[in-house]
Amino acid sequence: QLQLVESGGDLVQPGGSLRLSCAASGFTIGHMTIGWFRQAPGKEREGVSYISSTGDKINYVESVKGRFTISRENAKNTVYLQMNSLKLEDTAMYYCAADPLGYNGLRPGYYTSWGQGTQVTVSS
To answer: What is the spatial distance between Cα 30 and Cα 48, in angstroms, rounded to a whole number?
Structure first.
């Protein structure tokens, strides 16, 4: 069964850091773009970042540029999202998803095989 599992979410104070992990099982993500998305209560799902299969294409939503870093370890079938200088507005459920066709963008509709999400709460 194809599955993506997110982990690493937690309650953190403003200015803190977290590293999210997205681990795949049942399939290899080495040839796929992987994206991170987030959804806050009452808001639409938002693309946060993506990384292409080889890591040569990376992009971020403007609001996280300079604070978040996406990376991948294909040998571990895992993609990471390092989040630094967290702000209150980063609070959301974070999801990863696979883009097997190489769309390389931040529109959720192009992604498949979504994980269940990991909660990130930034609060003082």
So the answer is: 20
Quick one: 62 exposed, middle or buried, by C-beta within 10 A (0-12, 13-18, 19+)? exposed
- 107 or 26, greater pLDDT: 107
Q: How many CA atoms lie within 13 A of 85 on its CB side?
A: 7
In the predicted structure, residue 82 carries a pLDDT above the cut 80 = yes
Report the distance separating Cα 35 and Cα 123, nearest Å: 25
Question: Can you say whether the dihedral through the CA atoms of 104, 107, 110, 112 is positive or negative?
Answer: positive
Whether the per-residue pLDDT at 65 is higher than 90: the answer is: yes
Which residue pairs from 43-49 have beta carbons closer than 8 angstroms and sit at least 24 positions apart in sequence?
43/92, 45/95, 45/108, 46/92, 46/106, 47/105, 47/106, 47/107, 47/108, 48/81, 48/94, 48/106, 49/81, 49/106
